[in-house]
Structures are given as C-alpha cells and as structure tokens.
C-alpha cells in the first residue's frame, strides 16, 4: 500500500474485507432467519437478546486483533520481519488466555446480565443456551481473527475471506440440520456457529503456516516477550475497549427495547441484522484506511497517508448514496426474511424510513476512526466512541417511550453528530501537524 494508486489500493483492499465481514455477519443473520422461520418469534427474540452480549465479547477479541494489526502493518511497512513474526506469536498466546477468561466470565455472568437486561421469562432459557454454547467456541473465533488480522497487515485481505466463505456455507447447512430438521431451536443455531468457526480458524492457520513465509512462526518465536505483549495491549487493548464500548451501550438500549414486548424485540433484532450488513462496506473502507495509513506512516510516507484520508472519506460518501436508496427501496423484502409477523414487519419499516437518511454519519465517523488507528492515536478512538454511545443511550431513553423503535434512529444520529464534532476538533488540533 506504499505504492500505486491510492484509490485503487483502498478499493481492492476493501472489497475482500466487505465480503469477509458479510460472511462473518452471515453466521448470526442465518441463525436468526432460520430460527425465526422454523422456531418462531420467541426463539428469534432469544437469539436477538443474546446477540448484544455475544457481540460485546467477540468485538473485544476483534478489537485486540485490529489494534495489533496496526503494529504488524508498521513492521511490514518498515521491513522488520523478525518483529512481525514475534508480534503474531505473542498475539496468539494472548488470544488463548483471553479465550479462557471470556468463556469463564461469560458463562458465570450470563444469567445476571440477562436479569439486568430485563429478558422476559419465556425466552430466558433459550437465550442462556444460545450464549453459553457460543462462548464455548471462543478459542476458534479468536484464532481466526488473529490469523486474518495478520494476513491483512501484510496486504492480503482476500485469503481469509475464502476460508470464511466456505465455513459460512457449512454454517447454513448445519443450521438447517440442527434447527429445521432436529428442532434444536436456538441451541442448534449456536452449535452450528461454533463448528463453522472451528473450520475457518483451522483453515486459516494451516494456510498461513504453510504458505506465507513472512508469517511462518518458528518454535523459537513462541515465547512471551514482555515488550511485544505490552505494545499489543497498548494498541490492541485500546482498540478493544473502543470496539466494546458501543455494544456495551447497546446492552442498555436492548434493555429498553425488551420492555416493549416480544414483537418489538424481534423487530429490533431483524433491523440490527440488516443494518450490520448495510454498514459493512463503511467499516471495511475504514479498516482499509487504517492499514493503508499504518503502512505508509511506517514507511515515512506522510503525504501519501494524508491523501489516503481524503480518498477514503470520498469512498465512504459514495457508498452512503447507494445504501440510502437500497434500504429505502428494499427494506420490506429484507425484513420478511426474518419474520412473517405483521407487527414485527411494521415496526422494522418505521425504523428504516428514518434511519436510511442518517447513514452518511457512520460513513464519515468510521473513516475518521480508521485513520486515527492508523496513526496510532488509539485513545481518542475510545473517547469518540464513548461520546457517541453516551448520547445514543441518553436520547434513546428520552425518546423510546414516545416514538418507540423510531426513537432509536434519532438517538443514533445524535450520537454520530456528537462524535463527528469532537473528532474534527481533535484532528485539527492534534493530528494534522503530524502529517506535515
């Protein structure tokens, strides 16, 4: 990414990321669609209730990997091969420890968390089963994300997608088997996800160790290095906290939604799944901007890094125009993939008719966050996300009683605007001078 057309580099790197993130989201979306169709709205609501907790834990892992990839991208750009392998090895050791901690804490605290979220009694058992089974597969989720981050740090965003696509197809087949044929309901969907994650992790690890010389770890590399672990925790930990602060806020919002009944819970789950897919390209462009910036800063190409920021922002806004029209025109058929209940479909449609016009805000703020990570300003990404989610939770609390699910759309817009204002001020005062 230190040579050639900036726009071409960002686009070609982003496309596999879009596909990869879409396949990752497909795990949960297929779970929801099949569970909703074959097990009913109660089981769908159980999956939707467990999702914010599950996503919080998964985003902690992916955030750590994302932050660590900034280190690896810098080492690759500066041609420090030994440092690159050492960073990957220590990230794997840290990942094993994190997986064990997340499983133990998540399993023990899942019931108290659901109690705080006011999960209805009729779906509590299924929600617990779904979450605890997914937690058992955390080592596989962690391993895949570590190897995928390492490959992306050296400019290969395509290979992880191939393995993820194959595992996604396996997930669909297993969902149909466990939920539609065996009638295991939400627990069957969780089991399918764990097995699929195992397949993608194993394939990615085997490929990297056999085919990618830059990332082939020797036995001597597999030992804790205090300085490397400290750097991983410094950058990865900051990104993990930033990634987790938003779903933590969504837990509070989910609690407010839960008080509105099963139909609204199911609608909120459906729009969340669709929205996750809709925003994938925005997030993928932001990740491409992060890797592009980190590699160019590592190579001391500051002017090229600066130009990459504005090219990336332009790509973000072009995509917004597309997704706004797409959601406005097709939200009905999309919602019907998750539920056939008229109330659920009506609630979801009300949300999208408002939210479609606000998607330019996460486009710009995602690009800003990706650039800040690339120049290693990790702490500000935490602050910006905390500003955004704080406004979102507060405005949701103020509006949800009067506007229902539509109030959440206005709350999201308020949070993104606050984030954009603070981020712009920070860039002008703290970052712009580093690019000169």
Task: Briefly summarize what is shown.
This protein is mainly alpha-helical.
Model description:
This protein is an all-alpha fold and 436 residues long. The protein has one domain. It has 15 helices and no strands. It has helices at residues 6-39, 41-77, 81-116, 121-136, 138-153, 159-181, 185-211, 226-258, 262-278, 280-298, 302-336, 342-355, 360-374, 378-403, 405-431.
Explain the layout of strands and helices.
Elements: H1 6-39, H2 41-77, H3 81-116, H4 121-136, H5 138-153, H6 159-181, H7 185-211, H8 226-258, H9 262-278, H10 280-298, H11 302-336, H12 342-355, H13 360-374, H14 378-403, H15 405-431
Helix pairs in contact: 1-2, 1-6, 1-7, 1-9, 1-10, 1-11, 2-3, 2-4, 2-5, 2-8, 2-9, 2-10, 3-4, 3-5, 3-8, 4-7, 5-7, 6-7, 8-14, 9-11, 9-12, 10-11, 10-13, 11-12, 11-13, 12-15, 13-15, 14-15
């Amino acid at each position: 990414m230190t040579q050639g057309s900036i726009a071409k580099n960002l686009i070609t790197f982003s496309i596999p990321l879009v596909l990869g993130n879409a396949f990752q989201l497909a795990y949960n979306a297929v779970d929801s669609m099949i569970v909703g169709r074959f097990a009913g709205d109660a089981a769908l609501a159980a999956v939707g209730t467990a999702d914010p907790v599950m996503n919080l834990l998964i985003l902690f892992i992916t955030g750590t990997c994302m932050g660590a990839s900034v280190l690896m991208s810098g080492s690759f750009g500066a041609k420090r091969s030994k440092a690159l392998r050492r960073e990957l090895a220590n990230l794997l050791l840290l990942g094993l420890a994190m997986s064990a901690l997340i499983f133990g804490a998540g399993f023990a605290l899942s019931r108290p968390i659901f109690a705080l979220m006011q999960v209805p009694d009729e779906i509590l058992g299924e929600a617990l089963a779904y979450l605890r089974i997914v937690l058992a597969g955390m080592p596989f989720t962690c391993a895949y994300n570590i190897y995928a981050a390492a490959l992306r740090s050296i400019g290969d965003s395509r290979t992880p997608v191939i393995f993820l696509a194959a595992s996604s197809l396996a997930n669909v087949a297993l969902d149909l088997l466990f939920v539609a044929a065996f009638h295991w309901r939400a627990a069957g969907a969780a089991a399918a996800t764990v097995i699929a994650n195992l397949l993608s992790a194993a394939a990615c690890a085997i490929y990297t160790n056999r085919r990618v010389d830059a990332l082939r770890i020797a036995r001597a590399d597999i030992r804790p290095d205090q300085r490397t672990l400290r750097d991983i925790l410094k950058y990865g930990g900051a990104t993990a906290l930033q990634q987790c602060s938003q779903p933590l806020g969504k837990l509070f919002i989910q609690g407010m939604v839960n008080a509105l009944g099963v139909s609204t819970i199911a609608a909120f789950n459906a729009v969340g799944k669709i929205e996750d897919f809709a925003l994938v390209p925005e997030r993928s462009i932001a990740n491409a901007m992060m890797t592009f910036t980190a590699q160019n800063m590592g190579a001391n190409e500051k002017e090229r890094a600066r130009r990459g920021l504005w090219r990336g922002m332009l790509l973000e806004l072009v995509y917004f125009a597309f997704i706004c029209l797409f959601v406005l025109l097709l939200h009905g058929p999309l919602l019907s993939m998750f539920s056939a209940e008229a109330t659920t479909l009506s609630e979801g449609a009300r949300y999208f008719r408002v939210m479609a016009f606000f998607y330019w805000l996460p486009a710009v703020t995602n690009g800003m966050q990706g650039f800040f990570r690339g120049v290693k300003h990790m702490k500000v990404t935490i602050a910006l996300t905390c500003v955004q989610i704080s406004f979102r939770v507060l405005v949701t609390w103020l509006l949800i009683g009067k506007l229902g699910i539509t109030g959440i759309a206005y709350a999201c817009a308020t949070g993104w605007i606050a984030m954009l204002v603070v981020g712009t001020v920070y860039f002008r005062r703290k970052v712009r001078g580093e690019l000169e």
